[in-house]
Automatic annotation (TrEMBL):
Keywords: Membrane, Repeat. It comes from the Eukaryota. It comes from Aphidius gifuensis (Parasitoid wasp). Residues 475-651 form the Vacuolar protein 14 C-terminal Fig4-binding domain. Scaffold protein component of the PI(3,5)P2 regulatory complex which regulates both the synthesis and turnover of phosphatidylinositol 3,5-bisphosphate (PtdIns(3,5)P2). Pentamerizes into a star-shaped structure and nucleates the assembly of the complex. The pentamer binds a single copy each of PIKFYVE and FIG4 and coordinates both PIKfyve kinase activity and FIG4 phosphatase activity, being required to maintain normal levels of phosphatidylinositol 3-phosphate (PtdIns(3)P) and phosphatidylinositol 5-phosphate (PtdIns(5)P). One of its GO terms (cellular component) is endosome membrane. InterPro entries: ARM-like, ARM-type_fold, Vac14, VAC14_Fig4p-bd. Forms pentamers. Component of the PI(3,5)P2 regulatory complex/PAS complex, at least composed of PIKFYVE, FIG4 and VAC14. VAC14 nucleates the assembly of the complex and serves as a scaffold by pentamerizing into a star-shaped structure, which can bind a single copy each of PIKFYVE and FIG4 and coordinates their activities. Interacts with NOS1. Belongs to the VAC14 family. It is found in: Endomembrane system. Transmembrane segments: none annotated. This is Protein VAC14 homolog. Gene3D superfamilies: Leucine-rich Repeat Variant. Signal peptide: none annotated.
Length: 720
């Protein structure tokens, strides 16, 4: 048993009452302590006041007996009441013992601790602010208490603290941020509600510049927004919207770089509200800070590009917002407002973040002070392999935009991009294929060599790779080949496309593919509106340029006999066409061969060959044309194509000249117009190429026979 002097200045009776189990019996002790403190305060007896604070704070509030701890707490509250306005002088001794009891295992002790602190704070008010972080931590802990009575008491204390903070005008927000940043990552829903309520209250204080400190807690706020509790989601969403309004109102006070990476991370969340909010903030950041966002281009693209994959109503708002972000970001790249001369003057603050002009004469110019082009290209390349068509189209538009605005810098990435672009060229979506071709055309243009020279590195490389792609993927050639070639002819020169393809196919080792490819090119040439000018050039072979083009195509067209005849009909070289048809006698007539003649007959009946059919009105001038058509008729079996061509020939006006067997009397009007093309040499070339095809077929047949023989032998051996 402790002696009376150990509790002085408390009387033995007061000590007994403070240790009572029942609250009503402890209350008189509190009144006695309050009276005692008033007397000490009136006489300015600080020694006795501190002695009493020590007894209650250490001997009672820290006792092993729960009832004694309760007595100490009620006594500390009474001291504060007795001190009144002077409580601030002893605030540390008053509050710290109480806060210690916030972690007490006894629920009643925790409750009385909360009540005691409420009394102290109510009296001291602004004097408690130096201990605000300690008090805040204590209240935060009690807000998660499982006992409802403690939560209710905590709410009263919390409301009082908020009133004091908002009214004081003395609150140190910066000193408070570390504790808020630490606790905001709590996963307890009650703790989250408590923290969000404080953030909301502090942000609403007019003189408190919370925007500056926002980077400290933004990540935590977004994690709370992901909480599954609807109420917490709603409150957090409201708080974030308020912050965004403040940012719009005070854009110059915002630390954009301190928050953008946080937004980029959360913009990739699976939570719909969280993702939409983050993408919306990114949009506002680009709107408000403009060029300051250029260094974060790769991160922003990482966040928004997958959003274009959302279909229909599935996250439509996110997709729409991502579209706006994409447009704003691309505008930063293309807008002239951000373009200045490349300067070495690092002391010029006005030019610190300015975008550098793209100067064709200066290979060292760059777009943006910190535009990490390597990272941007890496992100774009990765998303090119995305399954979403809209995503791939957006990526391709980005690559095109970069080639347009910084071609010199993008040249360093052509080789890596080239491989990936070739992979998606065969995409099943027209939009992807078309945009890929647009990018390739720009790559070719940025090679800085005139296409007419024929030395463009990437032009030749692209066509070679395209033909390889068609060779490996017959389905692509059949289903998408015409579309790809037509688009290329629009984007680049149709003549140059056909010239280089003809030159490459002339040396093609895979003769079967060469035959099929020439057939495809021939059909496109004769039917596509995109090649109208090229057809007209081949119709008029009076110039050296057109003759050179004709010969170039002819040499490769020889891989396909029917296509060669069609080319001669297009160029109105009927005499040579007739010679070619005669040579068909030595060619193996297969189903594929007859099918090609069938298609040629259909083409002759099409609008493309209207001029040819009109020339049949003068058979005496175009007898080689007539003979060519009759030759085709004789080769065809009596099919629909045979009947069509037979009816057409039957419509030719009668003339005696057709019965003249004297070859010298035959007039080929078109042949006489020019004789600069050596058709004798071309015919020899045709025969040489066809001989190559014959030998190729023989080798294939022999190889197939050997394979079949080995297969039969293996089966026989297996049977034995």
């Amino acid at each position: 048993m402790m002696s009376e002097k150990d509790f002085a200045p408390l009387s033995p009776a007061c000590v007994r009452m403070l240790n009572e189990k029942v609250y009503d019996k402890r209350k008189p002790a509190a009144l006695e302590i309050e009276k005692m403190i008033k007397e000490f305060s009136a006489r300015n007896n600080t020694v006795q006041i501190k002695r009493l604070l020590k007894v209650l704070g250490q001997d009672f509030a820290a006792s092993h007996n729960a009832n004694t701890r309760k007595g100490g707490l009620i006594g500390l509250g009474a001291i504060s009441v007795g001190l009144g306005k002077d409580s601030g002088k002893y605030i540390d001794d008053l509050i710290h013992p109480i806060l210690t009891c916030f972690s007490d295992p006894d629920v009643n002790v925790r409750y009385y601790a909360c009540e005691s602190l409420y009394n102290v704070v109510k009296i001291a008010r602004c004097d408690v602010l130096p201990l605000f972080t300690d008090i805040f931590s204590g209240i935060s802990k009690l807000s998660c208490d499982p006992e409802q009575q403690i939560k209710n008491a905590t709410e009263l204390l919390d409301r009082l603290m908020k009133d004091i903070v908002t009214d004081s005008g003395m609150f140190d927000l910066r000193a408070f941020m570390p504790i808020l940043r630490e606790q905001i990552y709590t996963k307890n829903p009650f703790g989250r509600q408590f923290l969000i309520s404080w953030v909301s209250v502090l942000d609403a204080v007019p003189d408190m510049d919370f925007i500056i400190e926002l980077p400290e807690i933004l990540d935590g706020l977004y994690k709370i927004l992901e909480d599954p509790t609807p109420e917490i989601k709603k409150i957090t969403d409201t708080v974030l919207n308020e912050f965004l309004r403040s940012i719009r109102a005070n854009p110059t006070r915002v630390d954009y770089s301190g928050m953008i990476n946080i937004l980029i991370t959360h913009a990739q969340s699976n939570d719909e509200l969280l993702q939409l909010t983050a993408v919306t903030w990114i949009k506002e950041f680009i709107n408000l800070s403009g060029k300051k966002m250029l260094p974060y281009t790769s991160g922003i693209l990482t966040a928004i590009l997958p959003c274009f994959a959302y279909d229909g109503d599935n996250r439509k708002s996110i997709k729409d917002t991502a579209t706006q972000v994409n447009q704003l970001l691309m505008k930063l790249i293309t807008s002239k407002d951000y373009i200045v001369d490349n300067s070495d003057d690092k002391d010029d603050d006005n030019n610190k973040h300015n975008v550098v002009v793209v100067d064709d004469d200066d290979d060292d110019t760059i777009l943006g002070e910190k535009l990490d082009l390597v990272s941007v290209v890496e992100v774009l390349t990765k998303n090119l392999m995305h399954t979403s068509v809209p995503t791939k189209v957006v990526v391709l538009k980005w690559i095109y935009c970069l080639f347009i605005n910084i071609p010199d810098k993008m040249n360093n990435h052509i080789e890596d991009l080239f491989i990936v672009l070739m992979k998606i060229l065969g995409d099943c979506a027209d939009d992807v294929t078309q945009q890929t071709l647009v990018v390739f055309s720009e790559i070719i243009k940025t090679d800085n060599i005139n296409l007419s020279s024929g030395n463009n590195k990437y032009f030749t490389k692209f066509i070679i790779n395209l033909l390889r792609l068609f060779s490996k993927n017959k389905t692509l050639l059949e289903e998408r080949g015409a579309f790809i070639i037509r688009e290329l002819c629009v984007l680049l020169s149709a003549e140059k496309i056909y010239r280089i393809m003809a030159e490459i196919l002339l040396e093609e080792k895979n003769l079967k593919f060469a035959c099929v490819m020439i057939q495809a090119l021939n059909v496109i040439l004769l039917t596509s509106s995109e090649l109208f000018e090229l057809r007209n050039k081949l119709k008029d072979l009076n110039s050296k340029e057109s003759q050179s083009l004709f010969v170039c195509l002819y040499e490769s067209w020889c891989h396909n006999p029917v296509a060669t005849v069609a080319l001669c009909l297009l160029g109105q070289k009927y005499s040579h066409a007739c010679d070619l048809v005669r040579s068909f006698a030595s060619i193996e007539v297969t189903v594929e061969f007859l099918t090609e003649i069938d298609k040629l007959v259909q083409l002759i009946e099409s609008p493309i060959f209207t001029y040819l059919r009109l020339e049949l009105l003068e058979p005496e001038k175009n007898e080689y044309l007539v003979r060519t058509l009759y030759g085709l008729l004789m080769i065809l079996p009596q099919s629909d194509a045979f009947l069509t061509l037979h009816k057409r020939l039957a419509a030719i006006p009668p003339t005696n000249s057709l019965r003249n067997n004297n070859k010298n009397s035959i007039i080929d009007h078109n042949f006489k117009q020019n004789n600069d093309i050596d058709f004798t040499m071309l015919l020899k070339h045709f025969e040489k190429v066809q001989d190559m095809h014959k030998e190729h077929k023989k080798r294939l047949k022999k190889l197939n026979l050997l394979v079949d023989r080995d297969s039969i032998a293996n089966q026989f051996n297996d049977g034995n």
